[in-house]
Amino acid sequence: MNKHDLLLLQQIRGYPLVTITLPTHRTAPDNQQDPIRVKNLVSQAVERLLNEFPKREVEAVLRNLDQITNQIDHRNTLDGLALFVHQDFARRFYLPFPLKERVVIDHSFYTRDLVFALNRTQRYWVLVLSEKPTRLFEGTRDALNEIQEGGFPMVHEGPGGTEPLPGGFGVRKSHIRDEYHRKFFRQVDQALKPFLADDPLPLVVVGVERYLSFFNEITTHQDKILTTLTGNHDQTPAHELAQLVWSLVELNLAEERKRSLVELEKAIGERKVLTTIGEIWRYAQEGRGKLLLVEENFHYPAKLDESSLTILPADDPSAPGVIDDAVDEIIEAVLSHGGQVRFLEDGMLTQYQHIALILRY
Q1: Do 344 and 296 contact (CB within 8 A), yes or no?
Q2: 3-state DSSP of 307-326
Q3: How confident is the model at residue 171 (pLDDT cuts 50, 70, 90)?
Q4: CA-CA-CA-CA torsion for 33, 39, 41, 45, nearest 10 degrees?
Q5: Would you give the distance in Å from CA 343 to the centre of its chain?
Q6: CB neighbourhood size of 128 (10 A)
Q7: Omega of the bond leading into 164 within 30 degrees of 0 (cis)
Q8: Prior bond of 133 cis (ω within 30°)
Q9: DSSP code, position 169
Q10: What global pTM score does this model have?
Q11: In what order do the strands lie in the sheet containing 289-295?
Q12: What is the Cα–Cα distance from 153 to 112, expressed in whole angstroms?
């Protein structure tokens, strides 16, 4: 799941829209209980629908819910499962993070838990360069999901790909082949553009040295490339590729964390840093946050004052009127205004009260 998926879900309106989420398990014997838990939650949803509507009015919703449930592959789930269903739409997502058990029937799909979980999870793009085909994956920690839209996977259909190279005496075929490969990778780079615009995550590029060199020459996304993996991975299954890529991503993210601390120290010298969560809340809402640094497991239950601009600490996250985690709200505010968020290991920001916001001005 990526931000494009979230935007699609958030745009759908109507009634009734059914959202079902729950934690799942990757391995036996824990995953043996997952089908039972799904069945129970689906039964809750069906009962609530039939208590509110005559069966004929929600027949399409019930049919879609039944179909999407029967298509779940419980042998290959991850840590969470989400189902979204209405009369003309049904989607399921296997997610590499746990979700709370919920059945929500409303005028819109319930995406809050997914938004905050995605915001707190290391995500990235993986582009596997090849003639047949170039594949794009969205990565979430150690899991990859292949993109099957926006032109991907892309096959090189021109000369030197699915078509023969032009011949003739004196023709330098290797030179012509190289030019057609550059042309193909320009098309790949162009197709990649809307994905990075919608979800500007770090990019991992995979391929043989020759393809990496061509892509490096023509790409307009050089600033997004976090690392590269050299080798032929045309046929590498997603789960195997994920393990290879994630080890590189972890290594590079560790270096990025170190650079973040240097950037923080520089911003402190320029007096462009906030380190109290109350100030960070207000400036994040105003769109002044350039870069938010926060420890991975820092949470802050809070409540708003009458102005809604100031937050106060709350002892009970479940109490009425309490924001169960103001940090999640700050993260979403910074991202929604075009800022960046980087997560640091616990303890790296202790002297800054576990969170710091570098301002644009």
Answers
A1: yes
A2: CCCCEEECCCCCCCCCECCH
A3: very low
A4: 180
A5: 15
A6: 25
A7: no
A8: yes
A9: T
A10: 0.78
A11: 273-274, 355-359, 289-295, 340-344
A12: 30
Q: Left, alpha or beta for 170 (phi > 0: left; psi -120 to 50: alpha)?
A: left
CATH topology for 272-359 is 60s Ribosomal Protein L30; Chain: A; (3.30.1330)
Cα gap 115→3, rounded to integer Å: 9
Q: How many helices (H) and strands (E) does the chain have?
A: 9, 15
Strands in 10-116 per DSSP E: 17-23, 80-86, 89-95, 102-106
Query: By the 8 A CB rule, do 132 and 156 touch?
Result: yes
Domain boundaries, the chain: 3-119, 123-253, 272-359
pLDDT tens for 301-317 read 999 888 777 898 988 77
Q: Are 224 and 202 in contact, with CB atoms under 8 Å apart?
A: yes
Rounded to whole angstroms, the Cα distance separating 97 from 78 reads: 7
Tell me if the domain spanning 3-119 has CATH number 3.30.960.10.
yes
319: Cβ–Cβ under 8 A, 6 or more apart, which residues? none
CB atoms within 10 A of CB 283: 18
Q: Please list the residues that pair with 80 across neighbouring strands.
A: 23, 95
Q: Is 53 exposed, middle or buried (0-12, 13-18, 19+ CB in 10 A)?
A: middle
Fold for the domain defined by 123-253? Nucleotidyltransferase; domain 5 (3.30.420)
pLDDT, tens digit (0-9, with 9 covering 90-100), for 5-61: 888 899 999 999 999 999 999 988 988 999 999 999 999 999 999 999 999 999 999
